[in-house]
From TrEMBL:
Superkingdom, taxonomy of origin: Bacteria
Family annotation (Pfam families): Lar_N, LarA_C
Name of protein: Nickel-dependent lactate racemase
Domain LarA-like N-terminal: 9-206
Domain Lactate racemase C-terminal: 282-421
């Protein structure tokens, strides 16, 4: 038997699998760089892509807005890299009072002072003004126009009143826009609720029953309308500078890109492919995957990334065991619960999604779609009552999940293990 220990919540889960059944461990490719995280950060800032250095862009007396991640993306280690960005501003003569941090909450919940402290770190917390973006606060939004896709773009007024907007975050695969980071700091990060929902609604095919567009998937921006629409919205805002990090399998910053938000992000996507793409030769009967622990499995809504990636490694009809604690429950908003609990069929869920699109609804639909095509077992503290109409099985332990799988599917199952399922994207080997 081969022993495994995977992260779940703030702890780990241990289990054993017959070694001959394990056909692969799909994980990030370890970084071979000997540079420290601080060296990676500084090197990116001193060598921006298609842009002058940040210290050469800003000028004394200007008001600066730095758009940062929210607590669901604490894994990006903003507290480590933000002091470097502030140092560049200080070098240019920007005073502390002229720097505003806005957390790109998108449609996520408000945050606590303790969470602000985690995001800014001890060096910066208490010295600077930090606020959450509120996507439904119409008095603090400014309308900029419509994209070619018809999306009305309204953006945080306080950000737009600043002389310079700097966007900071991290790049990983994303199931709607291909890759996160870059433009996502603007839309959905500091956009209105209507802007966010109109953009994300582009992910659906035109006709009822056709579901999500084929172009909408992790690792794809080609003909992806959600991506293209976000880039247009970002062009309305014209951020002055971008800084994004790429993480390794140990949660350390292995690469970073800075400079022009389009061209630097393109380089960042290449880094992600080099580290987070796991090539496979076949699909498995069983995939055991974890989001990678807290905060990536903070709620079911965030865990959708885990489900989208892990199903790329499983045969249709195969089993996916998803380890995700979900200490804050379902997450998202009431639409997540509604999609899971109030409908019995995929077509009814899709009909509701089209009538009033929300991201939370789409996450619920995609989760139920996963359970329709795969035997989906979730090891979690979630209340099973929310999932009785979904086909998703909720269990408390990995042993319970394995016993249920073996009872239904038999043993000797070809198995993949995914220790960082929210980040790792399985892909078939390219055909030469």
């Amino acid at each position: 038997m081969k022993k495994f220990e995977l992260k779940q919540g703030r702890g780990t889960v241990k289990f054993s699998i017959n070694e001959k059944d394990v056909i692969g461990v799909l994980d990030n490719i370890p970084s071979t760089s000997s540079k420290t995280e601080e060296e990676v950060i500084n090197e990116a800032l001193q060598n921006p892509i298609s842009s002058p250095k940040l210290s050469e862009i800003v000028h004394a007396g200007e008001k600066i807005c730095i758009v940062i991640p929210d607590i669901t993306r604490a894994w990006q280690k903003s507290s480590l890299y933000l002091p470097f960005i502030v140092a560049e501003l200080t070098k240019a003569g920007i005073v502390d009072e002229d720097i505003l941090f806005i957390s790109a909450t998108g449609s996520h919940r408000k945050q606590t002072q303790n969470e602000y402290k985690q995001l800014l770190g001890n060096t910066l917390y208490g010295k600077y003004n930090i606020i959450d973006h509120d996507c439904k606060d119409k008095d603090n939004l400014v309308y900029l126009g419509k994209t070619n896709f018809g999306t009305p773009v309204s953006i945080n007024k306080k950000a737009m009143e600043c002389d310079r907007i700097i966007i900071a975050g991290g790049i990983v695969y994303h199931f709607l826009v291909g890759w996160s980071g870059g433009k996502k700091s603007i839309l959905p990060g500091i956009a209105s609720y209507e802007t966010i929902m109109a953009n994300h609604g582009l992910s659906l095919n035109e006709n009822l029953g056709e579901g999500t567009r084929d172009e909408i998937r992790c690792g794809n921006i080609i003909n992806n309308p959600v991506h293209l629409d976000m880039e247009e919205a970002c062009a309305f805002v014209k951020p002055s500078f971008m800084f994004n990090v790429i993480m390794d399998s140990h949660g350390n910053i292995s690469a970073a890109v800075a400079g022009d938000c389009i061209k630097a992000h393109a380089q960042g996507r290449k880094y992600v492919d080099e580290s987070d793409c796991a090539y496979i030769k076949e699909k498995a009967d069983l995939v055991i995957a974890t989001a990678g622990g807290y905060p990536k499995d903070i709620n079911f809504y965030q865990s959708s990334k885990l489900l989208m990636n892990s199903r790329e490694a499983a045969k249709i009809g195969g089993t996916i065991i998803a380890l995700t604690e979900c200490s804050e429950g379902l997450g998202g908003d009431d639409d997540v619960r509604s999609m899971l609990s109030n409908y019995d069929t995929l077509i009814d869920r899709e009909k509701s999604l089209r009538e009033r699109y929300t991201i939370s609804k789409h996450v619920g639909c995609l989760s139920c779609e996963t359970a329709h095509n795969f035997n989906l077992i979730v090891v979690s503290d979630l209340d099973p009552k929310f999932f009785k109409n979904t086909g998703i099985k909720i269990v408390k332990t990995i042993d319970e999940a394995l016993n249920l799988t073996y009872a239904e599917k038999g043993k000797n199952l070809k198995t993949y293990i995914m220790p960082h399922g929210s980040n790792t994207l399985p892909k078939f080997l390219p055909i030469n």
